[in-house]
Design goal:
Elements lengths: L11 H18 L8 E7 L5 H5 L2 H16 L6 E5 L3 E3 L12 H5 L12 H11 L18 E7 L6 H11 L4 E8 L5 H8 L8 E6 L7 H9 L2 H10 L5
Parallel strand pairs: 1-2, 1-4, 4-5, 5-6
Antiparallel strand pairs: 2-3
Helix pairs in contact: 1-3, 1-8, 5-6
């Protein structure tokens, strides 16, 4: 029979599953085949990010990042923090069931945008996921069951560099790894400094910048995000920060 045939574009769930497979394949390639991790997204909610949220680009981004949680996390979810001058943990983690329209329905219009300070969100994530031991928490941090992998995305510099340095150094005593990502054309010299900063118990941060994440393929994006994570896990386990 004649006529045109067309293939329907994949549904969002199908896209998520395809991306999850890419992450699983990369995880195996990186030697992390059975490694579990708690995946966290810390996303800049300062005023300069407004158009990215309103245009749908942030929605597209979280749809690309959720499969990392699907691949590494037993619950298949990503805990979600917004930061500006302060920090807001979203009541609902990103999941396959709530990801459609998440930004429009659960973020936009519900929170006001401010300036940019990395310190509060780094401190909050450390507080939420790392548990201190000893009387009144004076004995350091307990060994964590699994690493916490934080994807930290910003389009600008922080207003409180000493506070951020202190927060990252404190977090280096835990099993929390920060993958810093600079987006846009701003200078990110401070984030580059955090990537190599002295005075930490462990190298708990990596950094890269791109003008536009949407120009990266899924394969390129996941490799950029995960390349340094295996070395961190190896060292963190050796230092008994994680089991």
């Amino acid at each position: 029979m004649g006529g045109n045939t067309s293939i329907a574009p994949p549904t969002l769930v199908e896209q998520l599953d395809l991306r999850k497979k890419k992450v699983l394949d990369l995880r195996k390639e990186l030697g992390l085949n059975h490694q579990k991790a708690q995946v966290v997204l810390a996303l800049d909610y300062s005023g300069s990010m407004g158009e990215l949220y309103r245009s749908g680009q942030i929605q597209q981004l979280v749809e690309r990042l959720l499969p990392i949680g699907m691949a590494f996390d037993d619950n298949g979810e990503v805990d979600f923090y917004l930061f500006d001058d302060g920090v807001k943990k979203l009541p609902e983690a990103l999941t396959v069931s709530n990801i459609p329209g998440y930004i429009n329905t659960k973020v936009l219009g519900k929170y006001s945008m401010g300036g940019t300070d990395y310190a509060p969100v780094i401190k909050q994530i450390t507080k939420d996921f790392a548990e201190k031991k000893g009387l009144l928490g004076m004995g350091g941090y307990k060994t964590m069951e699994m690493p916490v992998y934080v994807i930290f995305i910003t389009d600008g510099d922080t207003s409180n560099k000493p506070g951020v340095e202190e927060a990252v150094k404190e977090a280096s005593n835990t099993g929390i790894f920060f993958q810093f990502v600079g987006i846009g054309r701003a200078g990110f010299g401070f984030l580059e400094k955090l990537d190599t900063m002295q005075g930490r118990n462990i190298d708990n941060a990596n950094f890269f910048s791109v003008n536009d994440l949407s120009q990266k393929t899924d394969d390129e994006l996941y490799k950029l995000l995960l390349t340094e994570f295996p070395a961190y896990i190896h060292e963190a386990r050796a230092k008994q920060l994680i089991k």
